[in-house]
Write a structure and sequence with these properties.
- The protein is mainly beta and 144 residues long.
- It has one domain: Lipocalin.
- The protein is 15% helix and 56% strand.
- The chain has two helices and nine strands; from the N terminus they run ααβββββββββ.
- The chain starts with a helix and ends with a strand.
- The N terminus is likely disordered.
Length: 144
């Protein structure tokens, strides 16, 4: 009788553990909430489509972070100097930051990775100056 109960319990446990769970789509505005510390930034400059400079940086401390609050506000801190912003999630992979005192976003930021512990943002901006097309990209790797 004990063996039958144990066997039944093991079969039930096996049945539940082998069931495939459906992937739960998380709302990016919920998962992005929190304090994200900068770990790596790669800034690249292009002139007329030709890469001219790539500058990686990994020298960041505990005062270098982005903080997203649940109410759509946030702070960016660089060496302890804070600037306030508001943010808007545009889609699962895009957001906009609007700095305090500004009326519109500087750029649309692509979210290339967002997990409970990792966030990678990609910013791509362009301008033309004296008939030369400049493109500036930044990839920010952050951790909670």
């Amino acid at each position: 009788m004990k063996n039958l109960k144990l066997t039944s319990f093991l079969l039930i446990l096996l049945a539940f553990s082998s069931c495939k769970k459906d992937k739960v789509e998380e709302n990016p505005s919920r998962t992005i909430v929190g304090k994200w510390y900068l770990k790596k930034v790669i800034e690249t400059t292009y002139m007329d489509g030709v890469k001219k400079e790539e500058a990686p940086s990994t020298n960041f401390g505990s005062e270098d972070y982005l903080e997203f609050k649940a109410d759509g506000s946030g702070n960016i801190s660089e060496d302890g100097d804070k600037d306030a912003f508001s943010y808007k999630i545009l889609s699962d992979n895009q957001l906009q930051l609007i700095y305090e005192g500004e009326t519109e976003a500087d750029a649309t930021i692509n979210i290339t990775k967002l997990t409970a512990a990792d966030l990678v943002l990609f910013i791509d901006q362009s301008e033309t100056y004296q008939n030369v097309k400049y493109r500036y990209t930044s990839e920010l790797t952050l951790k909670k």
